[in-house]
Design brief:
This protein is of the alpha+beta class. It is built from 7 helices and 21 strands.
């Protein structure tokens, strides 16, 4: 904010979240051609991160210039890690170097879910406890291992981001990315989603047992419609139930179907579920968030860290692990590598080989057509 305007500014604690469309950030930090779209009561103010302008430098320190590489700086996948001792999770002392080592350990498991897919990022260059930014476009100083692709019909004419190998993953670490979200599509089927995602978002303080029972209900409901589904701990307070799709149906078909499923769950158990994002409707219930199944919507990638205390991570789970789950976010960047070493089989075994689509029978079962 320019100094003359700061002089008379009144600062308030943010409580409401609004969705605003705009063309770009200006150099003085303003939105160009902003358009108010409405309030988002499904989001809490503390979850919102400012999107960084494209003309700002990617390597983040107290200055705008890129930090010089130092002799002996560690290298991962051909990416030199500057400021490796920077603490990103101060509550547990986890550094940028620790984060790179975490991704080095999980890369073989994570990359199949992350490469060659449009991604959205949450960057916290000085740690999750300080300012974070939501980002979908390239910026100065970003590694060439982070790729760009134009996507026609997107909310912006600018190119979007993706990675194609572990070098891209470490390129994200270098610029302070703490969360990686994918769009639910692969680059070779950019308009045909390859998964249905139901984000079960419980009200604050809701008993974990209710959330676990809900995940089973959603799984069984999807099974009745002909879908095999898989379970994910998001690293937050909710769980994802994910059904892979053969990528041949467009967003205009997938989103209404996902909404119909959410509405059917609410009709069957109005005491347990709501599909309404308004906070006042969610007291004591679970919000079935189907909005991730729309163009540009995204979901946390398997094994990504979260920008939260303790460095929790998104973790695929076996369904038979659900009963013994003691917390919605059971693993962290400190503890997950040990799980992977001890793991005898992939918890999402069969995910990529599952072939299933939205059938006419399934549509009719949820009141479509």
């Amino acid at each position: 904010m320019p100094a003359p305007e700061r002089k008379d500014a009144v600062w308030l604690e943010p409580k409401l979240v609004a969705e605003v469309a705009y063309t770009e950030w200006t150099r003085d930090g303003r939105l160009r051609h902003p358009s108010f779209k409405g309030l988002r009561e499904d989001k809490q103010a503390r979850e919102v991160h400012r999107e960084r302008r494209d003309d700002e430098e990617a390597p983040m320190a107290t200055t705008r210039t890129a930090p010089a590489k130092k002799a002996g700086d560690p290298t991962f996948g051909g990416i030199t890690l500057t400021n490796p001792d920077r603490v990103l999770y101060p509550d547990i002392g986890l550094t940028k170097l620790d984060l790179a080592r975490y991704y080095e350990a999980v890369a073989p498991f994570m990359l199949p879910y992350a490469v060659n897919r449009p991604i959205s990022l949450v960057r916290c260059p000085e740690g999750y406890a300080k300012e974070c930014f939501f980002q979908r476009h390239a910026m100065k100083g970003m590694s060439k291992a982070i790729k760009e692709i134009p996507i026609a019909g997107g909310e912006s004419k600018k190119k979007y981001l993706y990675i194609e190998d572990e070098s891209g993953l470490f390129g994200l670490v270098q610029i302070g990315v703490l969360e990686i979200h994918d769009w639910g599509v692969a680059l070779d089927h950019i308009n045909e989603p390859d998964r249905l995602v139901f984000d079960l978002d419980p009200d604050e303080g809701l008993d974990l047992a209710i959330l676990k029972a809900a995940a089973v209900e959603v799984r069984d409901f999807l099974a009745d419609l002909g879908f095999t589904s898989f379970l994910k701990s998001t690293g937050g307070k909710g769980l994802h139930v994910v059904a892979p799709l053969t990528p041949k149906q467009c967003w205009d078909e997938v989103k209404p179907f996902a909404k119909a499923i959410a509405d059917a769950l609410v009709s069957a158990r109005p005491d347990r579920y709501t599909a309404n994002p308004l906070k006042k409707t969610r007291e004591g219930k679970i919000f079935v968030d189907y909005l991730r199944n729309q163009r540009g919507g995204s979901a946390i990638v398997n094994y990504s860290t979260r920008a939260k205390a303790g460095a929790p991570v998104a973790c695929p789970l076996r369904w038979d692990e659900l009963k013994g789950l003691k917390a919605a976010a059971p693993y962290t960047a400190r503890t997950l590598p040990a799980r992977l070493k001890a793991m005898k089989r992939d918890p999402w075994e069969g995910f990529f080989s599952t072939r299933q689509s939205i059938t006419t029978k399934a549509r009719k079962a949820v009141g479509q057509g």
